[in-house]
Write a structure and sequence with these properties.
This protein is mostly beta strands and about 120 residues long. It has one helix and seven strands, in the order βββββαββ. It has one domain.
Amino acid sequence: MEFSDSFDLLEYRFSKTFETESSVSYDVSPIGGKGLGSVTKWLEVHYPCSGHIKAQIRGTVSVSPTEIKSFVDHILVEIGLPPGETFQLNLFDAENVMSMSQAQSTQGESDRIETTRRFDPPT
């Protein structure tokens, strides 16, 4: 698989630090930052993964909830994954944790049952 060497997204520059046959790691720095001291975050993508979820994306990048879907779409395109691929995203920083997934494949298959109804524990 061919991964991008670097790309800009939101206010960040993603610069590839290493890759394997099935994963890539990026140092993430503010656009315009200079030198190694400006690297403040990281992002890793693992693909293909065994099981139904084919892409695992993890990192310390801060993304607002309103930008998260376009962020994921852009990451998938930059690393050459097919549109609509299943993924699990886990982002965290000192203040927040954000998780998102697309469990339905392009063929309409899913490995889970999901609900939007909240279930309160019995009292």
